Amino acid sequence: MIKRLFIATAIAASVWVSPAAGARNAATALDGSTCNQWVRIIDVSSNNRVNNWLSVASQGIAGAYVKATEGLDYVNPDQASQIKGANAAGLLTGGYDFAKTSDDPVADAKFFVIHGGALGLLPPALDLEVTRVSTQATIKWALTWLTEVKKLTVRTPILYTGGVYSWSHSATLAQAAELWIAAYPYGYNRIPKGAFCSLPQPHIGAWHGWSLWQYTSVGRLSGITGHVDVDAVSTVWWKTVTGASVAPPVAPGKRPTSYLHLGSNGPAVVVVQNKLRIYGFLSGAADGYYGPITSAAVVRVQKALHLPVTGIWDNVTATKAAQYFIKHTPPKPKPVPKIPATCVRLYLANGSSGACVVVLQKLLHVSADGSFGRATGGAVVRFQTLHHLYADGTVGPLTWKELAA
To answer: Do 97 and 65 contact (CB within 8 A), yes or no?
Structure first.
């Protein structure tokens, strides 16, 4: 990712099988998925100049890892703007820390988390490329960092490294984190058009397979000045981390793309739901479940943007919607009605009616007809479930208190 002047040649020359062998045995991810199923992400630092994130997204790039920190004395000055630009274009992001094994690993992990490295939807990552200590000390350092970040964030980090390094043969390290492997079959030359699916298998040390594979550091994408690292992401890892599915390419030369559909659930759904709510396409909570209500909101977006009406949040819809969101100011949110003290003392359930039911319905963003029926009851159950309340569909003091929060 960075500081390659004295290590890059070793990585580029030593971590894959020969192209001839690769032609017979195309690279396979940990989950057994193959090249026409892998989504692509990029990773960037202050060395990269991204001029147009929308253009990047339109080329089938689904996410971006952004450098956050390096050791205890460096924070990427472009971190905030890179994350903001990527998120505005609909890309999911994560942060990475460039390891300095001369620093205390616990302090390094805390510095990384304090400076926003673990805030993205993609899990935090440790970039382990160089060391000034022994192999065993490097392994211990990495394990301590990974453990501390997991303790601080309740998320399991991923480890970026190369199979050429001595520490890559540590079974203990392989058990502690999934692998993001750096391996460039064509070195620092462009990968020939159409050759990706015959790239040779990267060496992976003690791991049984990789979850992310940085297969080139000289990728070229419209919207980015100069070269950029491009990474293949295994299908199962992507779905597990984000909740999004992967659509195979519809034409030769195209990349698989990330999409959401009825039944999808997870962080990526929440991101979309929040955008749809802000711009008035969706009423209700961002509960992370892509159900009929979310699908109907996506249909409204597609109609407004003159797109094919599918109810599926695919790459075309996501890119066009991002263009719309960037150009338009979201409507002012409707004022949230205050809850009268008389309502807070009431228990409401199926069959209830009156002014307090209207207040409840407005808070739940359902039709405010003053009659507590099936739709209102369903909205109450969803709200209670989302806020870890007993989901009995009855509105009492605890539910009222949570609605007022």
So the answer is: no
